[in-house]
Amino acid sequence: MNKRTLATFALAGIASAQVLVPVETAGTIILMASDGAVDESEPPPEVSANPCEGVTDTNYHVIPGGGAGSQNGSDWSNAYNALPASLDRGGCYWIGDGTHAAYIFDDATNGTQVIAVAKATETYHGSAVGWSSLFGDGQTIFSDRLSFDTNYYVVDGMRRDESDLWTGWDDEDSYGIVTDAVESGSGFPTENDGAHHVSIRYVAIVPGDNVSSPVAFGINGTNEGWYIGYTLQKNGRDTQLNGASNLVYEFNMHHVLNGKECIRSQTDSLNMVMRYNVFWDCCRNDIVGGDGCTADVALFGNPTASFEGIRYYGNLHRRAISGSKADGTMQVQADDCIIAFNTVYDDEDGGNGGLKCIGTGGSVRNNIAYFPNGMSNNITGTTANNNSTYTSSPPFVNVATGDFHLTEALAGAALGSPYDDEDLDGVVRSTPDRGAYEFN
Questions:
Q1: Strand, coil or helix: 134
Q2: H helix runs in 298-410, sequence order
Q3: Beta 295-299 vs 253-255: how paired, if at all?
Q4: Contact at 8 Å (CB) between 272 and 243?
Q5: Cβ distance 386 to 339 under 8 Å?
Q6: Is residue 424 in some structural domain?
């Protein structure tokens, strides 16, 4: 696995500092540079492999205990001992290994100027003055949550183990930044308009021993232009994406320790792209809180809400806990939604799972679902075809070990870019085959 989204942006010739706008034309989503004006309809600022290159102007340096010099952040010899209470717009704050306190990002905005906070590594760490590899060979750990009250931030842990889903993506020790919880707003739940244009990458959010801790991402209010990618969410409860419009959500691992949904939204949300994510044992009924879970991913009104332009593709759902209970695996109450190229394994009693787009113009296509205990709610939408469901003998290499690659070609319908571009492994789709993986 690699930073394939970044490669896509590079091929499009878009500079890393530009704000990008998703535009759909004839079923194809492309990302175009905006004029740079402050506009809450814009998606998040995308970043390169070095999150500070082209996005920020000044490097600052932070290590627990601070540097031996003046501690003004100018280099590692003079490093801050903690993130300052106020951050400079256009600044990049390289953070070394060690434990840091909770932090609220509440700096006044200045147009679209970004503030970046990045894990220092041997390759990228700002100044070379006073640098030691001991600052970058471990993890940056926030002992409590990160909160966002204002706009235009990047938080990047810079790394994780990409070698395997179940031992790499799921290994919190492989991420550059670890934190207890990440929230939009100054507390949970948030009651203001939240924050806009925030990018979070390579962060593991874990609740420690407290499985009833707050959600991994508590986005509440009106939140435009979030990018959440390459994260591990071993969260105590569900991730809230209420009002999160123009969202890109990709390459994340959800492995819940509680019984609720992995993702839930009950507030108006538009233009959400959710792709290449892994959902592991959501909606568990064998532990406290599992009863009444709607779906692994549930986007629905409470009592009514407007969801439009939902794009959900290339995701993998693995629910291997017999006795789980849910109304579906992915359930969207939306008009104009596309659910495509997803793989579902659901071992719950009765197989009460599936992929459902409840609304006008929903397209549910090229998906594979395996329900060894039968199924009651399967694959539904205004257009639902070229899907495969199994109750036995699924075409997977090894269900028990989580290898859901195909054992044979299973041709689907061509849907066009970006849906046909590549699979969960980054393999170019040539047929394309159904499910999250192309037969290879």
A1: helix
A2: none
A3: unpaired
A4: no
A5: no
A6: no
Would 76 be classed as within a structural domain? Answer: yes
- In terms of residue numbers, what domain contains 156? 4-406
Block mean pLDDT (10 aa), the chain, length 440 = 36 30 37 35 53 78 93 96 95 95 91 93 94 95 86 93 92 91 49 74 76 65 84 76 85 79 80 92 65 77 70 91 65 84 82 75 92 76 91 94 96 93 94 94
Which residues have C-beta within 8 Å of that of residue 414, sequence separation ≥ 6?
A: 420, 432
Whether 28 is in a domain gets the answer yes
Using alpha carbons, list the distances in angstroms from residue 37 to 40, 92, 210: 10, 22, 42
Q: Which amino acid is at 440?
A: N
> Angle at Cα 114 formed by Cα 110 and Cα 116, nearest 5°?
140
**CA gap 266, 332 in Å, rounded:** 10
How many independent structural domains does the chain possess? 1
CA dist., res. 74 & res. 87, Å (int): 13
Domain assignment of residue 314, yes or no = yes
Query: Residue 71: what are its φ and ψ, rounded to 5°?
Result: 55, 45
